[in-house]
Q: What sequence folds into this?
């Protein structure tokens, strides 16, 4: 299917693009602020539109009218694009509330639904709660992103506690992908019930443990999602994490993994000189590399970007490099001897759902 994705450069839009890349074979056409004037041409031959673009900051007038205008632009394209048979709208549970954002999202929903009905396209209204996750901007996308930024900066915010429902942004993206095939007119993913204070306390505890390389308790899905959000923000400055090596007349001892709760699986590989392992990314998995013998280069590239981050590591000075989610990664034996590497993942490997998506780190290999 050929899909027009609006807001593809934003927080939810980028994650939706990654999700589509990982779990589907759809052709995705990107609509951003820079090419919005070409919307009609972009929609040509598209079979579906996922409308993520929105306005959530600015004056009341800008927020209200901005969301409506975006919907009107999509509606105009829909009326002129007979190939589009489905529209999926990234709406909000706050739509219809007495706020400029709530009023604007509700009006936009009405505009899109009416246009779809006029053209005979299927319309799916996806109502999302508070979303958070990797790459969120502090003081903009989510209070979780703000908390993570302050923890890393050594700041303590004033926490105004209240119950809250959180949905990881990849869960939100999956709901939009589900909208491409669902027979339901409305979707509302549940997410996780928690409190603002609990989120702060959890992130603080995670940061304290992770500063020395320990893995915090990952007992629930929300724990994994918060930890991945924190790790993402700490990359690459936090790495490699140096390990303490204990030596006596018997040899050396290094603690490579201290996990404080949850599942886990450890395995060891050997790699011949010049050989590269990996060349994939994960959406959720927490994965650790520790070279225990030989020399290696660990290279990573954020999906849909060009810059490669590399770490040269050696078994003579063991150190931790954990793979952030949605970063393509590999490890290459750069020495003359056999490379021995310890790998750890936070969950048992499931061949039915491996959460492993092939892509080379080197961009020239994508051609």
A:
């Amino acid at each position: 299917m050929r899909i027009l994705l609006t807001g593809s450069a934003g927080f939810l839009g980028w994650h939706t693009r990654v999700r589509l890349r990982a779990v589907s074979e759809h052709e995705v056409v990107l609509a951003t602020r820079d090419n919005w004037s070409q919307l009609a041409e972009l929609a040509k031959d598209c079979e579906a539109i996922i409308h993520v673009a929105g306005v959530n900051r600015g004056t009341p007038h800008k927020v209200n009218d901005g969301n409506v205008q975006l919907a009107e632009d999509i509606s105009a394209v829909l009326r002129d694009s007979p190939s589009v048979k489905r529209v999926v709208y990234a709406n909000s549970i706050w739509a219809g509330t007495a706020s400029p954002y709530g009023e604007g999202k509700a009006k936009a929903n009405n505009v899109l639904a009416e246009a779809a009905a006029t053209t005979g396209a299927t319309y799916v209204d996806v109502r999302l709660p508070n979303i958070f996750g990797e790459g969120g901007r502090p003081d903009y996308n989510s209070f979780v992103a703000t908390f993570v930024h302050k923890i890393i900066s050594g700041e303590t915010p004033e926490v105004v506690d209240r119950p809250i429902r959180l949905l990881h942004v990849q869960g939100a993206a999956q709901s939009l992908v589900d909208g491409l095939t669902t027979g339901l007119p409305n979707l509302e993913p549940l997410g996780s019930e928690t409190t603002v204070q609990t989120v702060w306390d959890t992130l603080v505890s995670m940061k304290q443990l992770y500063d020395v390389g320990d893995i915090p308790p990952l007992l629930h899905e929300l724990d994994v999602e918060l930890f991945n959000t924190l790790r993402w923000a700490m990359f690459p400055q936090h790495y490699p994490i140096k390990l303490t090596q204990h030596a006596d007349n018997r040899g050396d001892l290094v603690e490579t993994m201290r996990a404080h709760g949850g599942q886990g699986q450890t395995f060891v590989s050997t790699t011949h000189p010049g050989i590269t392992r990996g060349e994939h990314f994960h959406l959720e998995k927490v994965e650790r590399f520790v070279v225990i013998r030989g020399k290696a280069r660990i290279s990573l590239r954020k999906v849909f970007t060009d810059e490669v981050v590399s770490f040269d590591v050696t078994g003579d000075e063991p150190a931790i490099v954990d793979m952030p989610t949605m970063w393509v990664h590999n490890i290459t034996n750069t020495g003359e001897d056999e490379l021995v590497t310890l790998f750890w993942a936070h969950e048992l490997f499931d061949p039915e759902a491996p959460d492993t998506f092939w892509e080379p780190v080197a961009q020239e290999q994508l051609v």
Observations:
- The first strand starts at residue 2 and ends at 6.
- The chain has eight helices and 21 strands.
- Residues 152 and 234 are 7 Å apart (CA to CA).
